[in-house]
Amino acid sequence: MHPLAMNFRRFVDDPSFVCVGAKAALAKGRMHVIIAKDLLSSCDDYRIYSGLCEIVRDYRADREMFQSFVVIFEQPAHMSEESFERALWVRAQSLSDKDASNGQAYDDRVSMQPDNPHFALSFAEEGFFIVGLHPGASRESRRFERPTLVFNLHDQFERLRSDGDYEKMRAVILNRDKKLTGSVNPMLARHGETSEARQYSGRLVGQDWKCPFDPLERSSHEPKANSATVRRGVPSLTRRDTDRH
Predict the structure, then answer these.
(1) pLDDT values of the chain reduced to their tens digit, one per residue, 245 residues
(2) Contact of 110 with 120, CB cutoff 8 Å
(3) In what order do the strands lie in the sheet with 121-123?
(4) CB burial class (10 A; 0-12, 13-18, 19+) of residue 3?
(5) CA torsion angle for 94, 142, 191, 167 (degrees, to 10)?
(6) Which helix (H) or strand (E) holds 151?
(7) Distance between CA atoms of 210 and 50, rounded to whole angstroms?
(8) Angle formed by the axes of helices 154-162 and 166-181, to 10°?
């Protein structure tokens, strides 16, 4: 196992780690980790997209809860919160554009408009929420030794809501965050109250913040309706190389 993957697992397993959902994914062996080279480069984007598609395929096959797809980047070792946020959205846009060019529709349970309260990213027709971590994060709960993007399936949150467990889990996470950092993260909000895009990077942003994600850019990559590349369902791509380069 790659040292960064080992360190991330220790990071999540630490008693002070805030997110109990991530702890559950780790305990169940459903935290899938890959190591990428550079958050500022597109060189691993196809491999990341392939991994996302496989997570969707696995989830639809067994519907097991608490699955996460974790991408740890070896570089840059140091980033400001602003530079991390910019890089996160560049990667998100690139992955979304690849999804569109692969003929995948946007998950119709979420919005592709980043200022919509129901916004989420979509890959292989499944909504995703990103949790960003990096060494320069102002909140301790978002601080890890290398830039990291954690992709969580939106459907898992909706299932928790329908089972009556979402609010209980949310309360536990908020209490753990307050215990660790001394305050509740002011950026946290329920899906449907405000756009979740504001939460992805972990940076405290004001009401005038504009999300860099461009749904029109994604749309420009969609193949024409009569194109042979248009497909529905999960693309068949190369199997992810878990915990390795």
Answers:
(1) 899 999 999 999 999 999 888 999 999 999 999 999 999 999 999 999 999 999 999 999 988 888 999 999 999 999 999 999 999 999 999 999 999 999 999 999 999 999 999 999 999 999 999 999 999 999 998 999 999 999 999 998 888 888 787 778 888 888 888 888 887 776 666 656 789 999 999 999 988 999 999 987 888 777 755 433 334 455 555 434 445 44
(2) yes
(3) 31-38, 68-75, 148-153, 126-133, 121-123
(4) exposed
(5) 150
(6) strand 148-153
(7) 29
(8) 110
In the chain, where the domains are located: 3-219
User: DSSP string spanning 40-96?
Assistant: T-STTHHHHHHHHHHHHHHHHHH--S--EEEEEEEE-S---HHHHHHHHHHHHHHHH
Rounded distance between C-alpha atoms, residue 102 and residue 121, angstroms:
15
The CB density around residue 46, as the number of other CB atoms within 10 Å, is: 14
**Distance linking the first and last C-alpha atoms of the chain:** 10
Burial of 183 (0-12, 13-18, 19+ CB in 10 A): exposed
Q: Please, which residues bridge with residue 121 across strands?
A: 128
The two structure tokens encoding residue 33 = 């980790």
Tell me the C-alpha to C-alpha distance, in Å, between residue 239 and each of 120, 122, 236: 25, 19, 9
Gyration radius of the chain over CA positions = 17
